[in-house]
Amino acid sequence: MEPEAFVELFQNALFQVLVMVSVIIIPGLVVGLVVAIFQAATSINEQTLSFLPRLIATLLALMFFGHSMTRMLMEYFFRLVEEIPHLLY
């Protein structure tokens, strides 16, 4: 069993996590930035104003991309299960 195989598995796992997290986080960041610019332009200093739009953007991102993220995770899991015999020998 070679260490390079584990490093490659770990790299692939980190890439999957990075893709899945960024799909959820980036829409919330963009909406937060737009709300912050709106608050700065109108001099509204309400802290709770940016929470609800970010929450809605995050939930919408989960709703739209949840199926594809689950599919990606399942494909990665199946690929890992298929590679187990090759890793043991």
TrEMBL record:
Q: Name one GO cellular component term.
A: plasma membrane
Membrane topology value: Multi-pass membrane protein
Keyword annotations of the record? Bacterial flagellum, Cell membrane, Cell projection, Cilium, Flagellum, Membrane, Transmembrane, Transmembrane helix
Residue ranges crossing the lipid bilayer per the database entry: 13-39, 51-70
One GO biological process this protein is involved in is: protein secretion
**Main location class:** membrane
- Please indicate which superkingdom the organism of origin belongs to: Bacteria
What is its subcellular localisation? Cell membrane; Bacterial flagellum basal body
**Free-text function comment from the UniProt entry:** Role in flagellar biosynthesis.
User: What family does this belong to?
Assistant: Belongs to the FliQ/MopD/SpaQ family.
Question: What name has this protein been given in UniProt?
Answer: Flagellar biosynthetic protein FliQ
Q: Which gene encodes it?
A: fliQ
